[in-house]
Amino acid sequence: MKHSIALLFLLSPTTSAFTLSMMSAGSSFGRLFRISTWGESHGGGVGVTLDGCPPRIPLSREEIQIDLDRRRPGQSRITTPRNEADSVEILSGLVYGNGEEDSGTTLGTPIAMLVRNKDQRSGDYLENDMSVAYRPSHADATYDAKYGVRAIAGGGRSSARETIGRVAAGAVARKILRMYNGIEVLAYVSKVQDIEAENVDHDTFTMEEVDSNIVRCPDQASAEKMLARIDEIRKAGNSIGGVVTCVARNVPSGLGSPVFDKLEADLAKACMSIPAAKGFESGDGFAGTLLTGKDHNDEFYIDPETGATRTRTNRSGGIQGGISNGENIVVHVAFKPTSTIAQSQNTVTRDGKEVQLRGKGRHDPCVLPRAVPMVEAMVALTLVDALMCQKGQCELFPDSAPVEERSNPMGTTAKREGGPNKEAVGVGGGDKPIGLKVDEE
Fold it and tell me: Cα-flanking dihedrals φ and ψ of residue 280, to 5°?
């Protein structure tokens, strides 16, 4: 009886969000703009169900395929040679015009997308020691410990192939962001081991520059050094890690909510859910701990053309107090070296015997180039969800207060009605600093 009462409580309308989170069991993400991915690496296919997409959005299969092509295997010598076209099928959620088969309009109903697996080789896993021995630092052992059973071939849900659904849904999110405010979400490989990209302007770098080399680093000189290092490690039968940096431009201020739904917290969860992700930084991140408050603070100023509040620096990475401030959102995601390597390692079998294992099959010596569209997708999905939450809570009714009583608009795309406020200058004593008494915990 106690169990029945508890179940009824969980299913009550007042706890619907909590219930949905519990019911998803780890395969769903988002609140209003919500995805659920499904499928295993060596199963019939993988895909996603996207719920909460606004209606009347023009959407084509090609727009989704572009991002999937950037994620797919077999792109170069530094990615897994598995040969998959990753051709997407849109199963629901769109209405098509006369004669149209690949381009339609969203209905506002769930969008289901499927990519069929074509080139899986389960024998690489099942016909050798990998069927009983755990790969060190891989999810093999923990999946077995949790479920008592695991998909040995291809790693099942722990495989990066699961991210196909995220990237497909992320392409839809990218389209929505661009239509809403010209928002761009672009990522690049910023570090391979100790080799860092230099001279990358976060205001101007393009996807074409990122994709101009197989490392996906817009700094060509650094990309050549990164490629040489990856090749060196790859030829030795080993793997290598690094950092992907993602920049979101033209994001309006106001996205994110205190206390537990801060935008950077949501972005951290999104990016840390990507396979092989091991670290996350927002803005200057850990480097900011080496500065003083005076050096780290982003001082405000008024844009002389738009009248909007801006910051002279962006060490906060476009987020302050967990809420976007209208500057570029900048995050960094650290990825570990791939677990499956061709060198011999000590490990154990499922029945508790110590053995040595040499990885076989096809895998990425470096996940970074293919992680770029994955990070872009998760950032885009997070931003659309935050945007819809902001619209639903804070912008349901227009602010009818006079312009002079509203807070000054913030950010790169914001504009103050009537231009800069030339009257509100020298408040608190002319050119003297304004005194501020603070009593915070």
Answer: -145, 135
d(Cα 134, Cα 152) in Å, to the nearest integer?
10
Closest CA to 70 of 242, 201, 189, 214: 214
Measured between alpha carbons, how far is 18 from 35 in angstroms, rounded to an integer? 16
* Class of 24-283+318-393 in CATH: alpha beta
The pLDDT-based confidence of 120 (bands split at 50, 70, 90) is low
Long-range CB pairs of 216-222 (<8 Å, 24+ gap) are 216/188, 216/189, 216/368, 216/369, 216/372, 217/188, 217/189, 217/190, 218/188, 222/195, 222/196, 222/197, 222/198
Whole-prediction pTM value? 0.89
CA angle 153, 334, 32 (to 5 degrees): 80
Count the neighbouring beta carbons within 10 Å of the beta carbon of residue 274.
20
d(CA 180, CA 207): 20
- Alpha-carbon gap, residue 251 to 270, rounded angstroms: 17
Q: Return the sign of the alpha-carbon dihedral for residues 286, 287, 289, 295.
A: negative
In the chain, domain spans: 24-283+318-393
CB contact at 8 A, 373 and 217: no
Residue 18 pLDDT: 46
Query: CB of 318 within 8 A of CB of 248?
Result: yes
